[in-house]
Design brief:
binds 2'-O-acetyl adenosine-5-diphosphoribose
């Protein structure tokens, strides 16, 4: 069965990585405009570099939880019939064992050179302005998609949504587009849709089925069901 899974910050919450909107509009004490827009970076690049350096260190100290692990088990069974699309910039899916992961909002572990456009592994804390490993310019920024910028791999995601039989959204508030609209695309092409979230989201009414609960519980239970059904 072809499945597209979309994950958001809620799947990493039980690993101790804070979600965005649960913090009352603030993101680790900062306004989103200051740390997640190109304009914020222009105003105070050092602050933004320190912010993402701190998040990268925090994510590295976090461990995958049973929800990440369950999705890795599902990939082992389904292989390339499963596409995992995440809005998260941490690498907890990969560390749980998932290999087919699309980071549509970029990754904390990567840097983007504002001079030559190369994407590379972060060579050192970006607040130290290390040189780009490709062109040598000291203009690296976090390879994270900010508001107003285009998410990665949208063509590949749209194609997978059009071809899937089941679309599952996990731990995402449905507040940020285009990801919040994936349920429409999947429905339009005839897929069944399932939402797994702690509480109802802004787009819950668009799903065929909604299961509420902590990701470690509801995702594990859903994956066990899928594994039993495809045994
Ligand atoms: P949000 O912080 O907006 O939403 C987190 C969702 O996870 C909420 O719906 C919570 O109810 C749910 N949640 C919290 N704890 C949970 C748990 N233990 N189990 C299951 N669900 C839980 O995060 P996202 O929807 O991922 O974009 O945010 C989308 C995008 O907005 C992010 O990728 C980021 C942000 O600004 C960019 O940086 C471009």
């Amino acid at each position: 069965m072809r499945i597209v899974v979309l994950t958001g910050a809620g799947i990493s919450a039980e690993s101790g990585v804070p979600t965005f909107r649960d913090a009352g509009g603030l993101w680790e004490g900062h306004r989103v405009d200051d740390v997640a827009t190109p304009e914020g970076f222009e105003r105070d690049p050092d602050l933004v570099q320190r912010f993402y350096d701190a998040r990268r260190h925090a994510a590295a100290a976090a461990l995958p939880n049973p929800a990440h692990e369950a999705l890795a088990r599902l990939e082992q069974r389904l292989g390339d019939e499963l596409l995992l699309v995440t809005q998260n910039v941490d690498d907890l899916h990969e560390r749980a064992g998932s290999t087919r992961v699309v980071h549509m909002h970029g990754e904390l572990a990567a840097a983007l050179c504002a001079s030559c456009g190369a994407r590379s592994a972060v060579p050192a804390d970006l607040a130290e302005w290390p040189p780009c490993p490709v062109c040598g310019e000291r203009m690296l920024r976090p390879d994270v998609v900010w508001f107003g910028e285009m998410p990665y791999e949208l063509d590949r995601i749209e194609a997978a949504l059009a071809a899937c039989e089941l679309f599952v959204a996990i731990g995402t508030s449905g507040a940020v587009y285009p990801a919040a609209g994936f349920v429409w695309t999947a429905t339009e092409h005839g897929a069944r849709t399932l939402e797994l979230n702690l509480e109802t989201s802004e787009v819950s009414s668009l799903f065929d089925e909604v299961r509420l609960g902590a990701a470690s519980v509801v995702v594990s239970a859903w994956v066990d069901e899928m594994l039993a059904a495809t045994a």
